[in-house]
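Notes taken during the Thursday session

The instructor put the following on the board and asked us to keep it in front of us for the whole hour. The protein is Galactokinase. We were told not to look anything up and to reason only from what is written here. First, the residues (385 in total):
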Amino acid sequence: MKDQLRQKFVEKYNQNPSAIYFAPGRVNLIGEHIDYNGGLVMPCAITAGTWLLLAPNNENVIRFSSINFEEETTIQIQKSYQKVGSAWYNYPIGVFNELQELDWLSGGLDLLYFGNIPIGSGLSSSASIEVLTAYALNDYFNLNQDKLELVKLSKRVENNFIGVNSGIMDQFAVAFGEADKALVLNCDSLKYKVVDCNLGEYVLAIINTNKARKLEESKYNERFGECKEALAALQQEININNLCELTAEKFALHSHLIDNDIILKRATHVVKENDRVHLAAKALSNGELEVFGKLMYASHQSLKELYEVSGDELDAVVDFCATYEHVIGARMTGAGFGGCAIALLKKGYEEDFAKRLTDSYVKAIGYPAAIYIHQIGDGVRKLVD
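Then, after some discussion, the predicted structure tokens were revealed:
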């Protein structure tokens, strides 16, 4: 892969790259739409991801190009940058915008990106690009920012430059992921622990519905606002900063403060999903995969009925998985509104699962899904020869 990318870089810029970096995508095993509510999430990095090759130029410009997209751009080095439309290169430009206050860039750069994460699939292609760019620039120019600062910077890009009110989970998992491990991350304190993710006789299947969604054009920000409304109602009686500070029992005592049925449904999902992450971490640590699988199904049902971020495509996948005897758990992953689902599938049944799911999905939706078997991999890093 590296040799092929080097050749592409030479063809594009007529020089060899000075360095190559990689950042993975991620899946969230459980704990959805609670990262921006201060809750616990359980993501892991995957082996699919994004590569960045870079080299300096003497023209005082930054060139952004990608093997995946025809769109490319060249910008003059300046003190700040603005988002331009919805092009992919807004994500790395946003990182440059955040880093400019360090006054570090004195010459131009040529950059070439390549990714094998399906765009708009919910596997965090945007966070992968953001963290990759921040990590590469920090390493290449010796900016001395630690990895957590780069994660926070990348989140600011997503929130302020791109305009999506997401939490910090995606960027954190992309940066701190470890092979064969899940991260149990407190999105309020940013404290986390690593849990062995020994799937034993099962593999993690990722099912792309092939219904792409752009978060800034979806109801994601609407859900963010609904949770803020629920929090404000509860704060009339109790002193909390985030919904996920509440246990299900304490929430039940104060839920009467929320007089809007839709807002109540949103808050109920958030509180109960947070509890599910605690139970899932315990189950995974103890190797109780069937318990973990049941929690995955419960999570999806809550996201479908209470948070209403699923859809026909994701439901068709999970409904099939519930009838397939060699799957013990499945759920949508990511923000929803399309994108991907995940399933715990017994080894040896990958081909049968793919065929039968495809047949079922085409019958229900009208076009095929894509099925991937990915390993749980390491976080962002520089690639060495």
